[in-house]
Amino acid sequence: MNTPETLDFIVVGAGISGINTSYRLQTELPRAKFVVFENRHSVGGTWDLFRYPGVRSDTDLYMYGFTWHPWPYPKAIGQGSQIKQYLETCVAEHNLGRYIRFGHKVVSMSWSSKSAQWTVAVSHDGVVDEYKARFVILGTGYYDYDTPRQAHIPGIENFQGQVIHPQFWPENFDYTGRDIAVVGSGATAITLVPTLAQKAGRVTMVQRSPSYILTVPDDDTSPAWMHPFLRIWSTLYSWFVILFCRYFPTAAQSYLLNKTRPQLPESMGIEPHFMPRYFPWEQRLCWAPAGDFYQALHKPGTSIVTGKIKRVTEKTIEMDNGQVVETDVIVLATGLRTLLGGKIDIRVDGEKMDWAGRLIWNFSMIQDIPNMMIVMAYTNIPWTINADISMNRFFRVLKNMQKRGARTVVPRAPKDSPMKTEPFSHLTSTFYTEVEDRMPKYGTAGPWKRKENVPIDYINARWGDTTTGLEFHP
C-alpha cells in the first residue's frame, strides 16, 4: 500500500450518477478535492455495458438527459450508442474527465469514527491502493454488472445451440437467418424482438406472462431551445400518468388494451399474449417507438408463445400447453440481478454493513452509515431526475454540517417507534421481489418515507427539512 491520498469526496462509478455528481461537485464546491473511480475503461455505466441489438432507452431523453446539458438530438428515444456518445460529450465539454480514474475498482470502504474518515481500498492493474475521504458517494446503480439474473428454466443445460444473456451479447454475433427464441417479456425482450426480426430467420418471444406495451412517437421536430421545457413537461406528464394508473387502474388497463388491439395482426387477439396479470405500473410499462414491436408481429417469421416452459431439449423449447418452439439460439431476456453498492465490502468501525432491513433516509442515505450518500432512482421516472434531486439535498446537508461544525452526519432511525416499513420497491417485478430480503427498506413517515412525488420531492430537497433523522457529530 502507498501512503493514502486524502480527498474530500470519493465518487464510485462514472455512469449517469457519477457524471452528474462530478458536474455538481465541480459547480457547487469548486475547491473540493474529489475523484471518480470507475471499474470499466469508459464512461457510461449501463450504456457502456449493454451492446445487444437495438439497445435503447425505455424513457424519453428529455427527462433522462441532464438539466445542465440538455439532450440535443431530434429523437426522444435514444439508441444505446447515441446515449453513450451523449455522455462522452457531456464529460468532454464540461471538463469532467480530469476527475475520472478508469480501471479502478473499489474493493472495500472502512469508516473510522475516531478520524471521521473513510479508508477506501481500490484495485488498479493488480495493485491495491488506499485513499482517505470525508464522504463517499455511491453511483453504482442497482444491478450486478458481472452476473446476470439466473432464471430457472428446466433443461436449459441440455440445449445444444447458443444461449445468450443480453447483458453479455457476443461481439460481432451474426444472427442472419438464425431461428431465435427470446425468453422474457420485459423492456429488453420488447427491444430485441423487432431488431432481431430484421435479419433473423424466425423470432419467437417466449413469455411466462405479458407486459403492457405502449406505442410512443419515435422522433420530435421541436427546436433545441425547447428541450429544457420538454423535460419539465415530460416529467409532469409521466407523473400524472402514474397517478392515473394508481387511482384508476381499470380505466388505465382498458385504455392500454384498446390501444394495443388495432396494432395486432388479424390472427392474433389480446388473449393470452397481451393481457397482463397485473394493472399498469404495478410493473414498468414497455415502450415501442413508432410501434416497432407490433410491426414486427406482422412479419411471417415473428411470433409469441405464452405460458410456462416445461423443459428445454437439445433443439427445442417445450411448453406446458404442448406448444414446441424449434430454435438455434436462446436469448435469456429474463431481467437483471438486483444489487446495491457494487459488491463493495463496507464496514463501520470494523463492523460489516449489511444492506438488508436498514431504513433509507430521504432516498439518499442509509441508516447508521456515516458520511455516505447513495444515488438511487424512482422506479417509474428516469434515473437522472432523482440523481439531481439527491444532489440538491446533499449540498444542503453539507451546509448544515458546516454551520454546526460537524465532521460526521449519520442517519438514525427513531428508537422504540411503531413506524412500519415498506419494501425497497413497490413494483411486483420478479427481479425486485426475489431479493427483497437483502435490500434496505422505507419507513412510513418523515424522512424515511418513500419518495415518489417529483414536484414535492424537488421542493423538499431545495427548501424543506434536511435535519430530521440525522445526527451531527463534531
Automatic annotation (TrEMBL):
<dbReference type="InterPro" id="IPR020946">
    <property type="entry name" value="Flavin_mOase-like"/>
</dbReference>
<keyword id="KW-0503">Monooxygenase</keyword>
<dbReference type="GO" id="GO:0050660">
    <property type="term" value="F:flavin adenine dinucleotide binding"/>
</dbReference>
<keyword id="KW-0274">FAD</keyword>
<dbReference type="GO" id="GO:0050661">
    <property type="term" value="F:NADP binding"/>
</dbReference>
<keyword id="KW-0285">Flavoprotein</keyword>
<dbReference type="Pfam" id="PF00743">
    <property type="entry name" value="FMO-like"/>
</dbReference>
<dbReference type="InterPro" id="IPR051820">
    <property type="entry name" value="FAD-binding_MO"/>
</dbReference>
<protein>
    <recommendedName>
        <fullName>Monooxygenase</fullName>
    </recommendedName>
</protein>
<dbReference type="GO" id="GO:0004499">
    <property type="term" value="F:N,N-dimethylaniline monooxygenase activity"/>
</dbReference>
<keyword id="KW-0560">Oxidoreductase</keyword>
<dbReference type="InterPro" id="IPR036188">
    <property type="entry name" value="FAD/NAD-bd_sf"/>
</dbReference>
